[in-house]
Task: structure prediction
Amino acid sequence: MAMLIAILAGLILVLCFCSALLRWNEVRYRKKGLPLGTMGWPVFGETTEFLKQGPNFMKNQRARYGSFFKSHILGCPTIVSMDPELNRYILMNEGKGLVPGYPQSMLDILGKCNIAAVHGSTHKYMRGALLSLISPTMIRDQLLPKIDEFMRTHITNWDEKIINIQEKTKEMAFLSSLKQIAGIESGSISQPFMTEFFKLVLGTLSLPIDLPGTNYRRGLQARKNIIGILSQLLEERRASKETHLDMLGCLMRKEENRYKLTDEEIMDLIITIMYSGYETVSTTSMMAVKYLHDHPKVLEELRREHLAIRERKKPDEPINCSDLKSMKFTRAVIFETSRLATIVNGVLRKTTQDMELNGHLIPKGWRIYVYTREINYDSFLYPDPLTFNPWRWLDKSLESQSYFLIFGGGTRQCPGKELGIAEISTFLHYFVTRYRWEEVGGEKLMNFPRVEAPNGLHIRVSTY
Ligand code: HEM
Result:
C-alpha cells in the first residue's frame, strides 16, 4: 500500500512539474501584441507534434487560433501564417525586414554565400549570376541537350525490372544537375560526389548539434569534401585552359561573364543549384509517375502528346526547345502534380526588427512560416480540389493568378522553374514513350520542409 502511495505521489509530482514547465513557457512568450497559440515545452517547443502530425498540426492549430498563430518549432519561436493575403505580403516585402529564415544547420552546411543566406544587394548579385546560367538561351543551347542525353541513358535497361522510383528520381535529379554544372558523367567522380551530397542534404535538415555521429556533423564533413572536389575541379580547369560549355565554365570565364564571383561564391552557388533542384525535381517526378499510374486517362493524353513529338523526329533525335514548348499537357501534369502533392509546403522567413504584422507585434528574430500548402486545395481557385485534373491548367490564367505560389513569390521566386520543368518533361518524355508500369509497393513518408510522399515507391516496368 505504501509503495502504491509513493508511486502515485511521484506521478502527481511529475505531472505538477510538467504542467508548471508548460505554463512557464507560455508565460515567457505572453508578450503584448503577439498572436494566440501555444509554445509547448522549453527548448523543444512543439517540434515533435509539428513533425509527427504534419499538415494536421497546422489545421488543428488554425481551428483553435485562426490563420495567424504562434508556436515554437525547430528551435525557434515561430509565427505560422496560413492567410493567403498575408503570405503574399510577406513574400513581396523582403525589403521591410522579412528575410529568409532557414534553419541554422541549413545555412552552416550550404555556405555563407548561398542564396538563402544573403540579402539586399548581395542577393541581387548572386541571383543575377544564377539567372545568367539558366536563362532561356542557356537552356536552349547548353542545358537541354545535356538533360536530353542524360535522361535517355538514365532510364535505359529498366525493362522487366522492379524499380525503386524514389531512389531513381533522386539519382536523376542529382546526376542531371552535375552534368549541367560540370559536364560530369555518371560513373566517374559522380558516385563519391553523390554519396557526399546525400549526407549534406540530411545534415541541412537536422538539429545543429556538432557531435560525433550526428547528421549535422556528417553534413558539415560532406560540405568540406564537396568543397574539396570542387576546388580540385577549378584547379584542373585553370591548368588545362580548355573551354568548357557548362555552368562552371560560364562562371569561370570572368572576361565574358559580367558576374565576377570569387571561388568561394562559385562553389556556394553550385551547391545552391544542386540543393535547390534536388528534392523538388525528384519528388515532382516521382509523384507524377504515381499520379499517372493512378489516372490512366491522363497517362493516355500525356503519351499521345509525346508520341506525336516522336513521330515528327528521327528515332534518336534529341528533343529541343520547340518540342518542349509544344508539351502543353505535360506542363499541366507537372503543375497539377506540384499542386496536389504540395511539393513545397511553405517557405521560412525571419524578422530583422520588431514589426507590426496583421495587427500583431512580432519581435525581432522570430521566424515566420509562410505556409502556402492550403491555398493549393482552395475550391474557389481549384474546383474539386482533391481530384488530379491536369486539364484545369490548360487555361493559362491559372498559372498567372496571384496565389500560384508553388514556386514561391516576390524577389525569391524560384529562378529554376523553367529548368525544373524542362528536366521533368524530358524525363516523362522518355519514360512514357518507352515504358508501361505498375505499382508494387510503397509506404508513406513525411518530410520537412518539403513533402508528404510515398517512400520507396516501387514499380514494375515493361516496354511500352
Ligand atoms: C519543380 C521544381 C521546383 C520547385 C517546386 C521549386 C520551388 C521553389 C520555391 C517554392 C522557392 C522559394 C523559396 C523561398 O521563397 O524561400 C524556390 C527558390 C529557389 N529555387 Fe526552386 N524549385 C524547383 C526547381 C528548382 C531548380 C531546378 C533550381 C535550380 C537552379 C532551383 C533553384 C532555386 C533557387 C536558387 C531558389 C532561391 C531563390 C532566391 O532565394 O532568390 N529550383 N524554389
Observations:
- The chain has 17 helices and ten strands.
- The beta strands are 68-73, 76-81, 98-100, 161-164, 346-351, 355-357, 360-362, 367-371, 435-446, 452-463.
- Residues 104-344+376-463 form a domain with the Cytochrome p450 fold (CATH 1.10.630.10).
